[in-house]
Specification:
With about 240 residues, this protein is an alpha+beta fold. It has one domain. Helix content is about 15%, strand content about 35%. It is built from four helices and 13 strands. Strands 2, 5, 6, 8, 9, 10 and 12 form a seven-stranded mixed sheet that branches.
Length: about 240
């Protein structure tokens, strides 16, 4: 967000010129408030990256399934002014069918599909770790993530931060849902798992969907204007174990 500096009044005018000057100042302030409000409701920024050692092993990521272009790092756009929705209304198949960024028609949730490819000559195992990189107003308490891994995964896994307020969800919410933030010493790790034996030239498709869950008891007016973004990194299992 830009620093718009400080407006300093150097000369005092009278009559109509004072009114005009004040009007300009009020318009300027209103515009700044509007900008801050708009950019303050920021949901869905993913930074996806390979560690240096994984890149050296020729493991790359791309939003292009043909890998005509690829990179060790991808950044997903943000969704501004996201509204809360219940999980059952999400049309995950649309996000799965869209390479790169997908935003729902009503701008209530954002999806991102990318591909990981072992372009090396040896089988490798990777550690996948997603963490909350930055947030304000405790948005993570009701920001849910749905991850699909593999071309034929049509179920996925939903990651939800442990509720501060105990809540019994309907049956549709209980399938393939896992809680994170259960450890007091680690409140930022959303996903931590191993992907074993990725063969040479093998490609794995990933889709991430992010939304503010309206049925989460922690979803209230306190999060209005909040922001959140995530960092997803793939590292070699060997370097993860070494650390």
């Amino acid at each position: 967000m830009k620093d718009y500096g400080v407006v300093t009044v150097k000369k005092i005018w009278t009559g109509k010129r004072i009114v005009s000057a004040l009007l300009i100042v009020f318009i300027f302030i209103f515009a700044m408030i509007a900008l801050l409000t708009y950019y303050g409701q920021n949901v869905g920024c993913f930074t996806i990256s390979m560690s240096d050692k994984a890149s050296n092993q020729s493991i790359y990521i791309s939003t292009d399934p043909t890998f005509e272009s690829y990179s060790p790092r991808l950044i997903c756009d943000s969704l501004y002014q996201a509204k809360n929705i219940p999980y059952p209304v999400i049309k995950y198949e649309y996000a799965r069918q869209t390479d790169g960024v997908y935003v729902s028609e009503d701008k209530s949730y954002i999806g991102y599909t990318f591909y990981l490819k072992n372009m090396g000559d040896e089988s490798v195992s990777l550690r996948e770790t997603m963490t909350v990189n930055q947030e304000t107003k405790n948005v993570s308490s009701c920001c849910w993530l749905w991850q699909f891994e593999g071309e034929n995964d049509n179920v996925g896994t939903i990651y939800q931060k442990k509720d501060d307020i105990p809540h019994e969800y309907e049956s549709t919410y209980r399938q393939n849902r896992t809680e994170w933030g259960t450890s007091k010493s680690d409140q930022n790790t959303v996903i931590s798992k191993t992907i074993d034996n990725i063969e040479p030239q093998e490609i794995i498709k990933f889709t991430l969907i992010l939304w503010i869950e309206g049925d989460d008891p922690d979803c209230n007016d306190d999060i209005l204007g909040g922001q959140i973004n995530f960092n997803l990194q793939f590292t070699l299992v060997s370097e993860s174990d070494a650390s």
